[in-house]
Design goal:
Blueprint lengths: L12 E4 H4 L17 H10 L4 E5 H4 L6 H18 L5 E3 L18 H20 L4 E5 L4 E2 L7 H21 L5 E5 L8 E2 L4 H8 L8 E3 L3 H5 L5 H10 L7 E2 L18 H13 L6 E3 L9 H27 L1 H10 L15 H9 L4 H5 L5 H12 L4
Parallel strand pairs: 1-2, 1-10, 2-3, 3-4, 4-6, 6-8, 9-10
Antiparallel strand pairs: 5-7
Helix pairs in contact: 2-4, 5-6, 9-10, 10-11
Length: 389
């Protein structure tokens, strides 16, 4: 289907090899789909109309591949990219699957594990640079614990900082020009994860030697599974100039990491997220880190991928409608109007400003009587989303 809701290169929609290539296995059942090669997955991503493909190092090159095997895989993948026109905007490292990372990677207690994790990541950064990736993501899938007796969290933070400082210097030394992005998650697969939320990550970034190089890669499911408002985390990251990448999917509160098709679980939150990204002219990739249902064959996987992009485009159009709706905009204008010249009392501090504010006649009982019309505003928003306005 090709219509106004079809993907466009301008939206920079991307999928990971691990998303469309997911075989449908889970902790309670084996795969329901056969495995595909990276080239086959890439062609499928191109076939659904996406802009780009992202990968973990071992999504592309198996962890035990020989140098010769590695070079052949890279050549084949580059050929597929040339033939399809797909880009590789982002790359990352798998530091969670192999048993060596059972206690973490950069925060593991065993220094041999920490050294191996850094070594593996350096090689993976080289691989990402070879494909022109501009963003390198760090998801600490095993950076955490099940018992606080196991690790001193302050020491773990120091170890994480040491690793990130090392990678920043490596990227600079090699002239890669990459930005680095931390991907927060509160729990799963560890009971408690370090750098659990966007706020944790933003605070940590300011302690690095090169904070200007490091931002965040927030994911819908990672914040919503803990009951947090994902839009607020995204807005905070964007306001600080740290929204380097974003993972789009969906999630019900209180469940395991479901990685549903974008917009499937909470359409209103998805709408507000799309509206924000479009309103601020977010220029990065819109990456769908999600998986098709275990019930699907690969035609169903394509339906899933097209659905992610189509829902985004539908919500983008509805966000444009919301921004042009005269009644909505009248309510917004009234909500932000300068009542009784109060704006003149606000702004930067000065002794004069403080005295003026202290002397101002601000009658709280009068102010409190004002109705905000949020009920009407929310209902109008719902009617736009539901397509009846």
């Amino acid at each position: 289907m090709s219509d106004r809701f079809s993907p466009t290169p301008e939206q920079k929609f991307t999928f990971g090899l691990w998303t469309l290539g997911n075989k449908g296995s889970d902790p309670f059942g084996s795969a329901t789909r056969p495995g595909l090669s990276p080239v086959e997955i890439g062609r499928m991503i191109a076939d659904v109309g996406a802009y780009g493909v992202n990968f973990h190092d071992n999504d592309l090159v198996p962890i035990d591949a020989t140098p010769a095997e590695r070079d052949q895989i890279v050549r084949d993948f580059k050929k597929m990219l040339e033939e399809t026109g797909l880009k590789v905007p982002m790359a990352t490292t798998n530091l969670f699957y192999d048993p060596v990372f059972k206690d973490g990677a950069f925060t593991a207690n065993d220094p041999r594990v920490r050294a191996y994790a850094i070594q593996k990541t350096l090689k993976a950064i080289d691989l990402g640079a070879e494909f022109g990736a501009g963003v390198y993501v760090f998801w600490g899938g095993r950076e955490g614990l099940e018992t606080d007796a196991a690790k001193n969290p302050a020491v773990a933070t120091q170890r994480f900082r040491e690793a990130m400082n090392f990678f920043c210097e490596y990227v600079i030394d090699n002239g890669y020009g990459m930005k680095l992005a931390l991907e927060p998650k509160p729990n799963e697969p560890r009971g408690d994860m370090f750098l659990a939320t966007v706020g944790h990550a933003l605070g940590f970034i300011e302690t690095l030697d090169h904070p200007e190089m490091v931002g965040v890669n927030p994911e819908v499911a990672h914040e919503q599974m803990a009951g947090l408002n994902f839009l607020h985390g995204v807005a905070q990251a964007w306001e600080r100039g740290k929204l380097f990448h974003i993972d789009l999917n969906d999630q019900y509160f209180g469940r395991y990491d479901q990685d549903f098709r974008f917009g499937m679980a909470d359409i209103k939150r998805a709408f507000m997220l799309v509206k924000f990204l479009e309103d601020v002219n977010y220029e990065g990739s819109r990456h769908f880190d999600a998986h098709a249902f275990r019930t699907e064959d690969y035609e169903g996987v394509k339906d899933f991928a097209r659905g992610c992009m189509r829902t985004y485009m539908i919500l983008k159009e509805k966000a444009e409608q919301w921004n042009k709706d005269s009644e909505i905009q009248a309510i917004i204008a009234d909500l932000n109007s300068d009542q009784d010249g109060a704006n003149a009392l606000l702004g930067a501090y000065s002794p004069e400003a403080a005295q003026k504010l202290k002397a101002a006649a601000l009658d709280r009982s009068v102010i409190a009587k004002r109705g905000m019309r949020y009920e009407r505003l929310d209902q109008l928003t719902m009617e736009i989303i539901l397509g009846v306005r």
